[in-house]
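Attaching the record inline, Q. Sequence:
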Amino acid sequence: MMRRVAAGGIWLLVAALGGAACRRPAQPGDPLPGLSAAERQRFDRGRAIFDSVFTPATGLGPLFNADACAECHEDPVSGGTGDEVERHATAFHPEATGRPCDELVALGGPVFQKRVTPALQAALAIDSEPVPPQVTAIAARTTPDIFGFGLLDAVPDSEILAYADPDDRDSDGISGRPNRFFDGRLGRFGRKALVPALREFNDGALAAEQGITTPAVPEEETVGGRPIPAGVDPAPDPELSAAATDLLDAFVRLLAPPSPARLSGQARQGRAAFATVGCDRCHVPALHTGDSPIPALRHRAVDAYTDLLLHDMGPELADICLGQATPSEFRTEPLMGVRRMARFLHDGRATTLEQAIELHAGEAARSRDRFRALPAEERAALVAFLKTL
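Structure, as predicted:
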């Protein structure tokens, strides 16, 4: 009898291990594993809002870049990258005391929308939001994927700050520093790491990208500093309810991060080279979430390959300022999912991973030069490793 029980226990263990081993890796657009039935329902309902196409009657515009979240975040599925390139602009005055960066909020910035509704076009005879002459830089911005953003939101500030070395005390040439929102909170989202929380990132995107007002952002943006003309925006504010905004946030928050591909022998060699040249000093392989009311987000490792800090990337990549970020400072771009991307860097100027590495400068110059010095076989291996992420 005991022998049969033992045998049964071993069978159950083998079955459990086999089930875990055969579990399908997360595919783009999948929810985080381990969601409750209620959480999965909210995720699915939020996806429907994310995919919804807005019209002027339902709140679109009158200034906008896209008529749906999924119009930009579309490849390979909702939540992915897109082929749109936005126009951002700010004014940087390094000699100014206090805040040298002017985000031009009073003049419609820093996102200057490329499209307008027919009513606004008729009222002002414009087909996009004008960029004021006060700008010192206009930046191109590609669309990132948002897979795994809920996990990045759940990383404690203390873990991000532990990687900061603004004075380069270890003399390695890398002096990552945090950006902070206007109220002093630690930033982490956006190419300049200005936005502190995922919910604010989502609410801000609704307003800036689609002209959709919410309870958190209840007023329309201006047109280059001028109020929206009367009669061109028929939908009452807020145009998206608190309940709908909550569901949209749940979808973005609960999107699973990309699953890396299986490492080949070449890719394993490339992973070692990635560390040898120092890429992992900024592209930190894993961050860890803290406590969370959502169990699927709680105390998890996130293979994001970022420190969420600002680093000076040199004058060739410099464009706008934002918050405390100077024109040449950018947040370390997460590399999770990079194998599915067709363009690289904040403005998409690089069309291959090799080209993206070659364009690294500033704090990344040492790692770039070490990459250049590698034998061709090791350079290829490092790129092969990146193509597994």
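The first strand starts at residue 63 and ends at 64. Residues 1-21 have pLDDT under 50 and may be disordered.

More tomorrow.
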